[in-house]
Specification:
By secondary structure, this protein is mostly helical. It has one domain (about 5-70). It is built from two helices and no strands. The radius of gyration is 27 Å and the shape is elongated.
Length: about 70
């Protein structure tokens, strides 16, 4: 098949693709507003907890390195 043949079929393929996308989106079960808020708060909480944990480890290891360097 030549390049011109592919270009003439492009609108048909694009229309088919968009139709299939619409059909798939119709199958999606969207979360409720309460679920979205609850899950967002969980993600934010876990992110803050992880950041705090990493921050504490960073401070601890920095102090440990400073002690070791100061000793030698």
């Amino acid at each position: 098949m030549n390049a011109a043949g592919n270009l003439t079929e492009l609108p048909r393929h694009a229309a088919t693709f968009l139709t299939e996308v619409r059909q798939e989106l119709a199958k999606v079960v969207w979360p409720t507003r309460q679920q979205t808020i609850r899950l967002t708060l969980i993600v934010v909480g876990v992110s803050v907890g992880t950041a705090a944990y990493i921050g504490i480890l960073d401070v601890a290891f920095t102090e440990l390195v400073n002690i070791l360097i100061g000793t030698f």
